[in-house]
Design a protein that fits this description.
Number of helices: 15
Strand content: 15-25%
Bound molecules: flavin-adenine dinucleotide
Number of domains: 3
Shape: globular
Mean pLDDT: 81
Largest sheet: 8 strands, mixed
CATH class of the largest domain: Alpha Beta
Length: 508
C-alpha cells in the first residue's frame, strides 16, 4: 500500500474518523508471478506488534512484507495504557511523540476499599524523565500512528485483505498460501513472524497450541464521554459502594472519554450486561446522580493467560498475543508484545539474519537464568511468569487491605493488576556474562564511535562498515584480545566491563 492510497491527514482525525479508515485492497505483482515470489521477512498481522516490528526492521534496512486479513484498525475499546518502555521503543521508531501528544499521561494510581483510599502509588517519583510512566491512548490511535509511520518507510509493504491460509515450513523458510478477494496466491518467505493475535490462525496452521488457563470471571467495559474533574490517574476500587462485592477501575482517555471496567462475576449474562439500561445505572452510581455522560462503547470480556511452549519454530517465530496472552489488568498485552518486537528487531541485524533464531532461541532456552525485575514480560520471561499470571485476577483478602492502609509491606500483597514493567533480555546474544565486578571508572573518552556513527547515518554502507567494525571489536574484547578502537570507553585501567554502551540508533 502506498501513502497516496489514502487522503492526507486521515490518521489525525477523531476517534470515529480513525476507526472508519478502510485500507484499500490492491492486487500485487506476486499474484500474477509464474513462480511464488520470494520475500526475506514476512510478518503476518498488522496489529501493534506486527507494525512495530515492521517499522523496526525497515529502519534497520530490512525490507519487510506485512500481510493482514483485515482492512481496518482496531475497533472499540482494547489496549489503553502504554508504558514508558513501550514509548521509548516507539520514540526510536519515530512514532512516540504523536502518541504522547494525543495520549493522557499519568504516573499516579490510587487503590480504594469501599469508598476509602487505602493507598496511592507514584510510578515515576523522580523528575527529569522524558516520558511519563504511562499514557492512555485508544488502540486504534496507536495503530493509526504506526501505520502512518510504516507508510513513510520505503522498505515496508502492507497488504490488506491478505489472509494467510496455509504454511509449508522448510529449513530455509516457508511457503505461504495467501487468500485475497481475487483468489489465492503463494509466496516464499525466508522468515515468517506470526503476529496474528491471540487466536493466531498461524498456530493452528502449524498444529501448535497455546496452553494456560481461562479465568471464570467477566468484566464490563463502559467507555463514556463526559467532562469530568477526576485527575489523570489510575483509580481502582475493591468492593466499592457503587458496585458492591466486585471491583472497578477508572481511566481517563483522550477526547474526554473515560474507560470504566466493572467486574461482573462468571454468572453474569454478557448479552444482558451490554444493554444500555443495565450499564447506565452502574455508571451513574459511580459518577454521582448529577453527572452527564454519553455511552461511547460497551463490551463484556473474559480473559485467559495462555502461552506457547516455544515461540521459535525453525524459520517461523511467534510474537505478541499469538505467543502469549495475559490479562488486560496491568496493561501487559501490547506492552509486552512491543518488547518482543524490539527484541526481534535488535537480533535481526542485516549482517546476520540467523541471529533472529539464535537470539530468540536463546531467550527460550529452558534453563535460561532470569534476573532482575519483578516481571520481565519478554519471550523467555513469559514462560516463567505464566504461573504468576494465573493468579492474575485483582483479588485480595480484606485484612490485607486493612493493613495496607498503614503499612507499606502489605501493599505489595495487594494485586489491583500487575502493571507492565520493562523486560530484561538476559538471553540476548548481544549481552555478555557478568563475570567480574563492574567497578571500572567509566569515562567517555574520545568520541570516535558516536561521531563517526552519526556521520555514517547519512550513508548506510558506511554505517554498515562502522557497525561491522564495532561488532568485530566487541568480539575481540570478549575473546580477551583487547580493543582496536581507541577511546570508545576508558575504564581507567580497572577491570574491563563486559557490558559496553553501544550505539542504539541505526540508520533510518
Ligand atoms: C479489554 C482489553 C484491554 C486491553 N488493555 C491493554 C492495555 O491497556 N495495554 C496493553 O498493553 N494491552 C492491552 N490489551 C491487550 C492488547 O489489546 C493486545 O495485547 C494487542 O492487541 C496484541 O497485539 P498483536 O499485534 O499481538 O495482536 P492483534 O492486535 O490481535 O493483531 C493481530 C493482527 O493479525 C491479523 N490476522 C489474524 N489472522 C490473520 C491471518 N490469518 N492472516 C493475516 N492476518 C491475520 C488481525 O487482523 C490483526 O490485525 C487489552 C486487551 C483487551 C481485550
Amino acid at each position: 500500500m502506498k501513502p497516496l492510497d489514502l487522503p492526507a491527514d486521515v490518521f489525525r482525525g477523531d476517534g470515529a474518523a480513525v476507526q472508519a479508515i478502510a485500507f484499500p485492497y490492491r492486487r500485487s505483482a506476486d499474484q500474477d508471478a509464474a513462480a511464488p515470489a520470494k520475500h526475506r521477512i514476512v510478518i503476518v498481522g498488522a496489529g501493534p506488534v506486527g507494525l512495530t516490528l515492521a517499522i523496526d526492521l525497515a529502519q534497520r534496512g530490512q525490507p519487510v512484507l506485512v500481510l493482514d486479513n483485515d482492512h481496518k484498525l482496531s475497533i472499540g475499546s482494547r489496549a489503553l495504557c502504554f508504558a514508558k518502555r513501550t514509548l521509548e521503543i516507539w520514540d526510536r521508531l519515530g512514532v512516540g511523540q504523536p502518541m504522547v501528544d494525543k495520549g493522557v499521561s499519568w504516573n499516579v494510581g490510587r487503590v480504594f476499599f469501599h469508598d476509602e483510599q487505602v493507598y496511592q502509588f507514584d510510578l515515576l517519583p523522580e523528575s527529569g524523565h522524558e516520558r511519563p510512566a504511562f499514557i492512555n491512548l485508544q488502540q486504534y490511535y496507536c495503530e493509526a500512528y504506526l501505520v502512518e509511520r510504516a507508510l513513510q518507510l520505503p522498505g515496508i509493504e502492507i497488504r490488506w485483505h491478505n489472509t494467510v491460509k496455509g504454511i509449508a515450513p522448510r529449513e530455509d523458510g516457508a511457503t505461504l498460501t495467501v487468500g485475497t478477494p481475487e483468489g489465492d496466491y503463494r509466496l516464499e518467505a525466508g522468515w515468517v513472524i506470526a503476529c496474528d493475535g491471540s487466536r493466531s490462525p498461524m498456530r493452528g496452521l502449524m498444529g501448535l497450541e497455546s496452553k494456560g488457563r481461562i479465568f471464570h470471571d467477566r468484566f464490563l467495559i463502559a467507555d463514556v464521554k463526559m467532562r469530568a474533574q477526576f485527575p489523570a490517574e489510575r483509580w481502582f476500587w475493591f468492593d466499592p459502594p457503587f458496585h458492591p462485592n466486585q471491583s472497578g477501575l477508572l481511566h481517563r482517555e483522550p477526547d474526554d472519554v473515560w474507560r470504566i471496567d466493572f467486574q461482573l462475576g462468571w454468572d453474569a449474562d454478557p448479552e444482558e450486561e451490554k444493554k444500555p439500561e443495565k450499564i447506565l445505572p452502574r455508571v451513574q452510581a459511580l459518577l454521582g446522580p448529577d453527572a452527564k455522560f454519553t455511552l461511547e462503547w460497551a463490551s463484556v470480556y473474559t480473559f485467559a493467560c495462555l502461552r506457547m511452549d516455544r515461540f521459535v519454530h525453525g524459520r517461523v517465530i511467534f510474537a505478541g498475543d499469538a505467543a502469549h496472552g495475559v490479562s488486560p489488568f496491568g496493561a501487559r498485552g501490547a506492552n509486552s508484545g512491543v518488547q518482543d518486537a524490539d527484541n526481534l528487531g535488535l537480533e535481526a541485524r542485516p549482517r546476520d539474519p540467523r541471529a533472529v533464531a539464535r537470539g530468540a532461541g536463546r531467550e527460550l532456552r529452558p534453563g535460561a537464568r532470569i534476573r532482575g525485575r519483578r516481571e520481565p514480560p519478554q519471550l523467555d520471561a513469559l514462560h516463567r511468569l505464566h504461573h504468576a499470571q494465573e493468579r492474575d485476577q485483582p483479588v485480595v483478602p480484606r485484612p490485607v487491605l486493612a493493613l495496607a492502609r498503614e503499612h507499606e509491606f502489605a501493599r505489595r500483597l495487594v494485586n489491583s493488576g500487575r502493571l507492565s514493567v520493562p523486560a530484561t533480555l538476559h538471553g540476548s546474544a548481544l549481552n555478555t556474562p557478568d563475570v567480574d565486578a563492574f567497578d571500572g571508572r567509566m569515562v567517555l573518552a574520545r568520541r570516535w564511535p558516536m561521531r563517526r556513527c552519526s556521520a555514517a547515518m547519512a550513508a548506510p554502507r558506511a554505517a554498515a562498515r562502522v557497525r561491522s567494525r564495532l561488532h568485530a571489536d566487541r568480539l575481540r574484547r570478549r575473546a580477551g584480545l583487547g580493543s582496536r578502537i581507541a577511546g570508545t570507553v576508558d575504564t581507567g585501567g580497572g577491570p574491563r566491563p563486559h557490558r559496553r554502551p553501544r550505539p542504539r540508533r541505526w540508520p533510518a
